[in-house]
Amino acid sequence: MGNCLFCKIVRGEIPARKVFEDDEILAFHDINPARPVHFLIIPKRHIASLATVTDADAPVLGHLLAAASRLASEQGSPDGFRVIINTGRIGHQEVPHLHAHIVGGPEPVGPMLKRIAPTA
Ligand code: AMP
Ligand code: ZN
């Protein structure tokens, strides 16, 4: 994907602060972190979003998730972390190359989402 931002990072055409890479996946720090630990893990092969995956993508997605815990610990979030995969327009996905945000740090990241209505 010639014009894809994250494909350009995979090809080394745009710099990134790499956390880890192997043949299948690349992890790099988010350029605009929301928590002390905030990095992205992407499949190196272009997959637009979680909405477009097929069963053929299952191995790389499993590999990506399996790497998350180890990398989160190494990056300073050993007591847990949150994985966020924004998907499509409703999911507010801004970069159309599938990526998992790994967020954490020494403090809890906070509630998941604001509830629609307060609980009684
Ligand atoms: P999303 O809204 O899930 O598509 O998130 C895209 C994320 O990519 C945002 O958190 C951005 O801060 C991050 N981002 C955008 N450009 C870069 C870049 N060149 N290097 C690292 N992270 C980036
Ligand atoms: Zn891409």
Strand content: 15-25%
* Discrete helix count: 2
| Helix proportion range | 10-25%
- Average per-residue pLDDT, rounded, comes to 96
* Alpha-carbon Rg, integer: 15 Å
The CATH superfamily is known as HIT-like
Main sheet summary: 5 strands, antiparallel
Low-confidence stretches: none
Q: Identify every distinct bound molecule in the structure, by name, code or SMILES.
A: adenosine monophosphate, zinc ion
Second rung of CATH, namely the architecture = 2-Layer Sandwich
Element string (H = helix, E = strand):
HEEEHEE
CATH class: Alpha Beta
Q: First CA to last CA: what distance? A: 49 Å
* CATH fold group: HIT family, subunit A
What characteristic shape results from the CA principal axes?
globular
Strand order, largest beta sheet: 1-2-3-5-4
Number of domains: 1
> How many β-strand runs?
5
Features:
120 residues, alpha+beta, HIT family, subunit A, globular, binds adenosine monophosphate, binds zinc ion
What does this structure look like?
The chain is α+β, with helices and mostly antiparallel strands and 120 residues long. Helix content is 21%, strand content 20%. A hairpin with a 3-residue loop joins strand 1 (18-21) and strand 2 (25-29). It has 2 helices and 5 strands; from the N terminus they run H-E-E-E-H-E-E. It has helices spanning 5-11, 58-75, and strands spanning 18-21, 25-29, 37-43, 82-84, 100-104. It has one domain (5-104): HIT-like (HIT family, subunit A, 2-Layer Sandwich). It has a 5-stranded antiparallel β-sheet, with helices on one face. Adenosine monophosphate (AMP) binds next to loops.
